[in-house]
Structure formats: C-alpha cells, structure tokens
Amino acid sequence: MAMSATMSSGAMAWAERGACRDVDPDSLFVPGAAQHRAKRVCASCPVRTECLTEALDNRMEFGIWGGMTERERRSLLRQRPDVVSWRPLLDASAVRTAALAR
Ligand code: SF4
C-alpha cells in the first residue's frame, strides 16, 4: 500500500519498504477487474505479510493490500470471521499460501 510520509512512522513503518512506495497511490485504488492488474506490484514485495495483516486486522475496505483485491479480502474475512489478529495465521505457511494465492 503506497503510504504518505505521515504514515511511514510507528506501526506502519514497514510501508517504506513496500514495492509500491514509488507508485501513484491512486493506481492501487482502482475499480473491479483492474485490481487484478494493480496487485502485480505486490508479487515481489518484501512486506506483503505486514501489509495484508494491516488490511485484514483493520478491515480495510478499499484498495490493494498485501497482494489481495477488495473482493478477495472480503471473501477471506467471511471465511474466518473469528480471526481478529491475522499475523499468526499469515505466518503459518499453509494458511499464508492459501490466502495469498487468491
Ligand atoms: S503488498 Fe502490495 S500494496 Fe502492500 S506494500 Fe507491498 S506492494 Fe504495496
């Protein structure tokens, strides 16, 4: 997730290392099928897990986060409404692979 300078400290310092740090933030907030093209930037991102955790934990509705589209995240959240902290699940390789492969 492309972040503004004000979001680069503290809990979201990981965003400075995101593969999208130099892209136009608007390119990650596109509608519908265009999100599948937009999320390609996430494929080589070193902070993909951190980004997806942020989005899922905070129920971020819009934009590409952690290599997932809005619809993909909604689907995952519907499958696991009991989860309030996603990091342990995303760190577990089987769950992480399933989540990120969507
Ligand atoms: S996972 Fe994608 S949206 Fe998140 S920081 Fe990395 S490149 Fe940006």
Give a verbal description of the structure.
The chain has 102 residues and is mainly α. The chain has one domain. Helix content is 37%, strand content 0%. The protein is built from five helices and no strands. The protein has helices at 34-38, 48-57, 70-79, 87-91, 93-100. The longest helix has 10 residues, at 48-57. It is globular. The model has no long low-confidence stretch (mean pLDDT 88). It binds iron/sulfur cluster (SF4). Iron/sulfur cluster is lined by residues 1, 15, 18-20, 28, 41-42, 45, 47-48, 51, 64-67.
Quick summary of this structure?
With 102 residues, the chain is mainly alpha-helical.
Number of H/I helices: 5
Largest sheet: none
User: Which descriptor suits the 3D outline?
Assistant: globular
Would you count the extended β strands for me? 0
> For the terminal residues, how far apart are their CA atoms?
18 Å
Rounded Rg: 13 Å
Helix/sheet category:
mainly alpha
Question: Would you tell me the overall average pLDDT?
Answer: 88
What is the succession of H and E elements? HHHHH
Please give the domain count.
1
What hetero molecules are in the model?
iron/sulfur cluster
Strand content: under 5%
Helix coverage percent of residues? 25-40%
Low-confidence runs: none
